Amino acid sequence: MKTTPLCPPGLILGLLLMWGACHQAAAALNEDQLDVPVKISNAYGKPIEHAIKVTVFWDDRNPTPAPILILNHGRSADAVERANMGRARYSVASRYFVAQGFIVAVPTRIGYGVTGGEDIEDSGACNVKRYEPAYEAAAIETMTVLEAVRARPDADRTRSVLVGQSFGGTVAITSAAKSPEGVIATINFAGGGGGDPKNRPQRPCAPQLLERMFAQYGKTTHIPTLWIYTENDEYFGPTYPREWFSAFKDAGGNGEFVQFPPQGEGGGHGLFTKYPRIWQPKVQEFLHRVGLVASASGPKPQSAGVLSTSSTGTTERTPQELDLHQADSNKADAPIKK
């Protein structure tokens, strides 16, 4: 009796070739961890030496030398949350930026998660805030990480961008004010300080001090900056961010302010992690304008596992991913894929 194979050899070969191609494409996206030693002083002048854990993403298929993007996390008001943050990754945003051709480095700064160490970013009690030393410390960490990533043979030392969420957004502007060599642009997502949505929703500590600080930054910031907020930011509200940006701009700062309509029922401070489809087109346009990406349209916007409302008013559910207050993280610090 003549039998017919359940799966013809040609089909099997085709499936194997498809599997191999997909496997090769998936393997091209790499994730690694880098330890970067930092020498720094806290707000009271105490010298500190500590190594920062940095998650690095890149894609072997991207042209080299590739531009660098440093992505900074925010700061929880709760010390336990800071300690339990794990390893900062921002995996959805990191994949998006890698797709634009960047090498993406996400530091877990001193005092947080797997990096540990003392809290060098403490700016004091609400009625006696000292913001500048806290952001200065984080900016030094950021620039140290940037120099370490620049040592990669596939990195372009002359093209970098600094991005940050919440506290990290202010760190991006702080760093830009130093006119760092090779940094072409910065992006500030919901930057500010002193926010407490539980006890003082939309009323951050000493907002006038932040306004004066941003005005000082504006005097020396000449590279393009993009400021992104939402009208329902539960930390800073709709008005303070505009006042901070106006102070920055009036002092001579180079920047663009974007405030999206309310996002989410609980507040829009987490726009960066929860609603990437909202901000990605604007960021793509900005990166194109400053010459860091070739196209102003870019890839299809990626989602981060939340409910989002489309332009037609319908609601769609997107794939779920772990999101913390500031940065999705790997609490178990699972093996890193290389």
Can you walk me through this structure?
It is a single chain. The chain is an alpha/beta fold and 338 residues long. It has one domain (28-317): 3-Layer(aba) Sandwich (Rossmann fold), CATH 3.40.50.1820. Helix content is 31%, strand content 22%. The protein contains nine helices and ten strands. The strands form two sheets. It has an eight-stranded mixed beta sheet, with helices on both faces. Helix 4 packs across helix 5 and helix 6 runs parallel beside helix 7 (240-250).
Quick synopsis:
With 338 residues, this protein is of the alpha/beta class.
Task: Describe the structure using short key phrases.
338 residues, alpha/beta, Rossmann fold, 9 helices, 10 strands, globular, disordered N terminus, disordered C terminus
